[in-house]
Each structure stands twice: as C-alpha cells, then as structure tokens.
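Just wondering, can you check both lines?
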Amino acid sequence: MATKTVRLNWNPESQFILSDRDDYQIVMKKPNGVSASDLLPMALIGCSSHDVVEILKKQRTDLRQLNVTAESVQDDAPPWRFRKIHIHYQAVGKGIDPEKLAKAIQLSEEKYCSVYATLKDAVEITHDYEVVEA
C-alpha cells in the first residue's frame, strides 16, 4: 500500500499554503486562493479528467480539448456537508465517438479514479457529457 504525505503551512497573513508530495503549492484563502470546500470537487474532476484523457489518447481519439465543470450541492449549515456533485464533460475534437467518451468516463468512475471511489458512497455523483466538433 502506498503512503503519500501532503502538507499545510499557515502564516500570519492568514494564508494556508498546501503542498503536494512533489512540493507543488496551492494557496487556500480568499481572495487570493482556493476555497477549502472547492478543493473536493476540483480533486474529483481533476482525477477523472486525467483518466478520461489518457483513455481517449490510447484509443487514438483526436481530442483537442476537455472542459469539465462540477456543480456541487452542500448543506446550508455547518459542517456544510456535500450532498451532490454533478460533473459535465465537454470533449472537443475531430470525429470523437460519444460512446468512446461515455466508456472512458465509466472506466474512470468504476476502475481508475481514487477520488471517485472514495466519495461515491458518501456523496451522490452524477455526470453528463457532450462532444463538440472542432
């Protein structure tokens, strides 16, 4: 089993600096950084999108761009639990087969995306997709 460590450092300017295992940094504090609760859906679409791109590349799909959004529903009161995340995938390219895109998304959800696997029993996750001809 792999063990991975990430870090957070807080400074007196009220900035929270998150660092991944390769020391890539993300600032977490408004107005100059990312909201902590936005990091969860961002991690989900980042993980899934990486999988989808890699799968479509292996299928020699002429993917030129992948645009993904995540719309989240959270409780109005603390601790503001996530209830639903809806993901919309937009694949831009030449002659992209919608069935191949759907299969790539399914493989990400069912086999490859660790964030999806972790969240799927705790949060309702749905998706849709569209193909745009370049």
Residues 4 and 21 are 7 Å apart (CA to CA).
